[in-house]
Structure formats: structure tokens, C-alpha cells
Amino acid sequence: MLIRTLIAAAFFAPAYFYALRHNMHMFQLNGYKNGEHLSWIKKNIRRQWILIFAILLGITRLFVKPLALDVFICFTLYIIFVVYRALNRMSTKKKLVYTPRVKRMLFTIGILSVIGTATIWAVFGWESLVGEMLILVGAQIIFTLLANLINHPVEKAINQYYINDAKKKLQSAKDLTVIGVTGSYGKTSVKFYLQTLLQAKYDVLVTPESYNTPMGVVKTIRGSLKPSHEIFVCEMGARHVGDIKELCDIVHPRHGVITSVGPQHLETFFNMENIKNTKFELADALPAEGLLFLNGDNEFINEKAAQYKDPVFYCSATKGKGYYATDVSVSRRGTEFTVVTPEGEKETFRMKLIGEHNVINVVGAIAVAHRMGITLPELKIPVRKIRPVAHRLEMREHGDVTIIDDAYNSNPVGSKAAVETLKMFDGIRILVTPGMVELGEKEAEYNHKFGTYAADCCDYILLIGAKHTKPILEGVLSAGFDEKKCLVYEHLEDAMSYAYTIRGEGHKYILLENDLPDNY
User: Fold this and answer.
1) Are residues 468 and 320 in the same domain?
2) Of 110, 172, 245, 418, which residue is the least packed, with the fewest Cβ within 10 Å?
3) What CATH number does residue 430 fall under?
4) Sheet architecture: strand order including 255-258
5) Region at 212 (left for phi over 0; alpha for psi -120 to 50; beta for the rest)
6) Residue 163 located in a structural domain
7) CA dihedral sign of residues 115, 120, 125, 130
């Protein structure tokens, strides 16, 4: 029996490590939220069934101890090790970060493992260890949830300490103007465009990358805010009702920009009304003298705008109100357009960004900068300096191939705009996409519509993942697209390899639209 136990222990250690690491990684990607992680487990139960099987098999082993069962348990532990090592190697887009919170959770999981082992040992004796080890490995499917629940009071106290410290630092910056930026999409782009434009006159701090959660914002304030900063552009993300209000209670924005309202994160918002109200929590938080900048192209924003006094609208084309763009011209070299202010002042701008839908974001940034005291002529050079935000219609040249990288967090409006941008180029136009996620019950419907849009704009369509892209394929074929030019691959690498082999007349353009996160 001792030899059996030692052999099982040799298989147990790597299986335990990789199963724990994978589940902790997914929990981190799900925002350390038990509700979202439970939903993820339900949707991905086929990926985790072996852990549930391990628990059941381990419980069986507590009561019966034949040699054949122990051999089978060792084999099961080996399979778990192989499967989860492979999953960990595949999950490379956003690696697990061993933050202090993760380390605290790992400590708690260790304590839970010790308690579980001691309890089973006390009841069933040391001969039950083989079963115990298998149960502990299988329990990784729920240990992250339990550890997070146990640690919640501690985490809440730690977070509140950091939040209070950030608030004190903001209060000490008497001359600092905070500009909040939120929206279902476009907020990260507008944030960085604002940074480029406002730096023509001010010392500007922005939240880095896609830092748009309370602790991401707090980390920026505590680590980067200096007395010399005059403007803090704070990106505000949301997955639940009240998230924007929570951020506003920390930074107290003076001005706000709402870039869009659309069907993003419907799995957690449930309906469009909740999304709309949550985005406008920013507007509700502004002081009386604050300026509210609204995307006048967005129907949901226009529905809500009437409730607010004197908002500043910006539009991609003349709408009879606010700032708007006209004479838009798009080429492979970039975009040229003219901005007209509410007072009728005009100025022509050139930028390296492509796509008419990018114009609306830049016009919004121009509107904010102009109201902050920078003249339109003074903004011409800063607009030329604007660079594409990483993975948002970012163009890269590879010989006779142009990669248009729009891989970050696709949405129904952005995906439609991306393929319409692809259509404007003369040459071989190839779309590579796994489709869109986090759209709740309407996910299949939106992906089907995306397929119909793509069929009208592309010469080749390469889909990644047969199951998830089925609605896109149906939409593509329903639009009469040549099925020989719409292919499905399981891996991005295979699709790209084929894309490079496609031959035809003209330059080749490959649009990478969306890139599913590791937890999909």
C-alpha cells in the first residue's frame, strides 16, 4: 500500500500544480468574480469534466482499495497533468500574473488542501491517501471560488486602503482636471488620442493600456500621478451596473466623454437599458460646471442625452449639432477630413489612422481639446502624430501583404466598421476571425449579421473555430458568398498559413478581426 501511495504522489504533484495554475489563470481573467467564474465553468464544463470525474473517482477510492483502481487513479492523474499542461501552454495571450492577491489566494488554497487532507485522513486513515490526492486535484475546479470567498474581507480591506490613499493624492492635486472617458467601445482609443492632443498645451497623465477598473485606476494614481500633472484622463470600464459610479466616486471627474453605448458585455449587463444607464453614470457624476461630450452618431446616446443640460456633441458627419467631420477621404496612407465647430470654424486634418469610424473618435478628442483651450490650427500637428492603438485597425506591412490588426475586443459596431474599411482597399481582401463573444443570448444573432456584412466586403473569409463561428458561416453563405472562399480552421496559425498562399491580382490585405481571450 505504501508503494502505491508513493507512486500516486509522484503523479499527484504535477497534476495538482497544472490544474491549480489553469483554474487560477481563468479566475484572474474572469476578474476575480465568483459569479462570472461560475458562468465560465458552466459554459466550459467539457474542458473541466475530468476534474469532476476525478472527485467522483477519488471518493470511490475512499471506500474500496483494489490495486486495479489505484493503477487507474495514477493513469487519471497523468491524463490531468498532460491536459492541463497543454492548456497552460496554449493560454499565452495574457499570462497569469502572480499578483499579491493571487499569492494570497494560493496560500488559502494550500490551507484548504491541508485541512481537506487531514479531515479525510482522520476519517478514513492513511490508506485513503491515494483517493485524497485525486480529490484534491479535482477540487481545483472549486478551490479558487472558496479561496476568494474566504479572502473577501481581507481583499476588501486592502483595496479600501489603496482607494483611500489614491483619493488623498487626488485631493492634494488642487489644480488637476480629471476627464473621465467611458463607452462600450472606443474609450481606449479616445483616451490615447486625447493624450496626444492635450499634450500640445498641458502635462497629461492617462491610465495605461486598458487600465479601466477601480484598482487599475488606483494603481495609476498612486504610482504615476505627479504634482506637475495638469490633466488626468481616466478610462472607465464597466461590466456591471454601478461600475462607472464606483470609479467616479474615486476620481471625481470634472468633464466626461461617452464614446458609445452598444451591445457589449450583455452576459453581465443583461439588457441595453442597463448598459445605457451605466455609461451615463459618468454624466450623473459631473459637477454643474463640467462639460459632457457625447457621440452624436450613437442612437442610444441620443435617446439619453435629452436628460442632460447643454451636452457637447461630436459626430462623424453633419448632424446639425456640435462638432462634426466633413469631406472625409480614406486611403492606404491614412485619412483626411475637415472638422467644423458649433461656431462654424473649420480646419482640415490629416492622420495616419484608417477607417471612417476612426474619424468619430478623433473628432471627439478634437472637441475636448478645443474646449480645453487649444485652437484648431494648433491641433493640426498633434492630429498627425496620432498613432493607432495596438490591435485596433493597426496596419503592418509585410512585403506584398498588409496586415490590418483589429484583434482587440471586437463588438458588433466595430466589426462592421472594420470589414467596411477593408472593402475600401483595392486588392485581395481577406478576413480572419473567430467571431465575437460576451454578447449574451444575442451572440449568435450578432455573429450571423457580421457574416452578412463580411460577405459584402471580403474576397476570402477564414473562420477560426467551427463551433463558435457557425452563425458567421451561416450569415456568409446566406448572402450568396462563394463557399469555396469561406473556410473554417481550428487554429489561427493554419488560417494565416493559407492566407499567405492565396494568389491573385493586386496587393493583399489581411484583416485580423478579434482575438478571443484565453478563457474562451
Assistant:
1) no
2) 172
3) 3.90.190.20
4) 204-206, 231-236, 177-182, 255-258, 292-295, 312-315, 323-331, 334-340, 346-351
5) alpha
6) no
7) negative
d(Cα 268, Cα 261) in Å, to the nearest integer? 15
pLDDT along the chain (520 residues), means of 10: 81 94 91 87 85 94 87 93 84 77 96 92 84 93 95 95 96 94 90 95 92 91 94 93 95 96 77 92 95 93 91 81 87 84 93 81 96 95 86 75 78 81 86 81 85 91 88 91 91 88 86 66
- How far apart, in whole angstroms, are the C-alpha atoms of residue 269 and residue 285? 20
Q: Which of 129, 143, 123, 220 is nearest to 178 (CA)?
A: 220
Contact predicate 19/137, CB 8 Å: yes
pTM comes to 0.78
User: Are both 405 and 468 inside the same structural domain?
Assistant: yes
Decide if 268 is inside a domain.
yes
Beta-strand relationship, 204-206 and 231-236:
parallel
Residue 66 neighbours by CB distance under 10 Å: 9
CA distance 75 to 214: 45
Nearest to 188 by CA among 382, 409, 469: 409
CATH number at residue 313: 3.40.1190.10
Of 385, 413, 429, the residue at which a domain comes to its end is 385
Task: List the domain range (segments joined by +) for residue 435.
Answer: 394-513
Q: What are phi and psi of 239, to 5 degrees?
A: -125, -10
